[in-house]
Amino acid sequence: MIKKDSPIPIYYQLQELLKDLIDKGELKPGDAIPAEREYAEKFHISRMTVRQALTQLVNEGYLHRIQGKGTFVSERKIEQPLHRLRSFTEDMEARGLTPGSQLISFEIIPATSQIAAQLGIQEYGPVYEMKRIRLADDVPMALEFNYIPANLVKGLTEQIVKESVYSYIEDQLNLEIDQASQVIESSIATQVEAEFLKIKKGSPIMLIQQQTFLKDGTPVEYVRSSYRADRYKFMINMKR
Amino acid sequence: MIKKDSPIPIYYQLQELLKDLIDKGELKPGDAIPAEREYAEKFHISRMTVRQALTQLVNEGYLHRIQGKGTFVSERKIEQPLHRLRSFTEDMEARGLTPGSQLISFEIIPATSQIAAQLGIQEYGPVYEMKRIRLADDVPMALEFNYIPANLVKGLTEQIVKESVYSYIEDQLNLEIDQASQVIESSIATQVEAEFLKIKKGSPIMLIQQQTFLKDGTPVEYVRSSYRADRYKFMINMKR
DNA sequence: GAGTGGTCTAGACCACCCC
DNA sequence: GGGTGGTCTAGACCACTCC
Questions:
Q1: Residue A56 CB closer than 7 angstroms to strand D?
Q2: What is the CATH number of domain A10-73?
Q3: Which pLDDT score, from 0 to 100, does residue B83 have?
């Protein structure tokens, strides 16, 4: 069950084990889980290690603790942690749709003042600009303009853009994408948006602007997307 | 600096101390903070206690750790933790606007099937229904329909609704509001919405539906709000 | 090799809940 | 009083970074 000589940390093994039990329904919402000391004894590990595992699950919303009473499985909403940063591809897959993409253009341009501000670089600095139509189940979902500083993410090619920019940044360049901030607003499709999205001019759209940051806070991406309101809803969980 | 005999936990004191230094600017983004062992020695506390303080600050985004190198102050997020659950009042205040409210109606009604589903109660079960126009700087911001199970939140009055429902739930009833999930979509104002919001029919609006939950997962509120798109943008931070 | 964070131990005492 | 989570200690060894 728990391998003490594994290179995988013990607290992590315990975490996954518990997540499995919850996902499988063997631990149901409202159930008390065994006491920390019990797990420690059962697996011959220290109580602090058990706590490390549980604390993370509490932070992720799987469990909640009540002092003096115990640790309990929280109500699980099917719409899971949607405040997780996802690429379009990951987002669509989570929604059970098949993502697709049509590249409209891909080039290096000098940053406008707005783009430069969003990316924290000099005006006229070189940025990759990608314009794409994003598809879900082969139907237009969003029109997306993507800007990435060329001095930070070097060697981007059309091929990579067609595969996965995030994978390239994370796996090839070894940069750690850490967080993003989005501004979401409601708007009405312009003529251009309407044409690309195959909707009528004046239809409602959801405009999402995103700044993406690395672990050290450097902006790595600015995206401006127009989503079809008839196809896209934004879901999020918030903690008090 | 750190009081070991205080009823306030040591890790918490250290946390606040560090937050202060960061907020005051004495620790700037990118700075390395002293090593964990250094803090332990300096304050005569255990390294695990130091780690407990730092870990929480890492989770909150104040710091990030790089193995083998050190712990560093993260770039300040200007638009702060906006994935925090807020009441309308708190939201507007955070935006520097003065919140206001016009109560249109307040009554107990039997739950429709949709409301019952959202609140996890029986159809036709008693719920408080509040209809309000939400103002910001005295101008309509949103039209809000709010539903609260009458068997859970007892004794709600018009007076309380005009003050703060959340305060009543949290401070008077001692229920712990823990999290909410929202579904956000883009839409177009109906005649009714247009009249209340003082915009033209067909103007863009942002439709936000919210389910609010207590710590044990019980739904405590269902809200359906139509925000004026010309006045309201939704901002959020996401972690990868 | 020196210094850093990452993981882990085997205890301890406290505050709180429930009987 | 017995059980629970909350806090804390004083060590230990490992993996990683940098020189």
A1: no
A2: 1.10.10.10
A3: 62
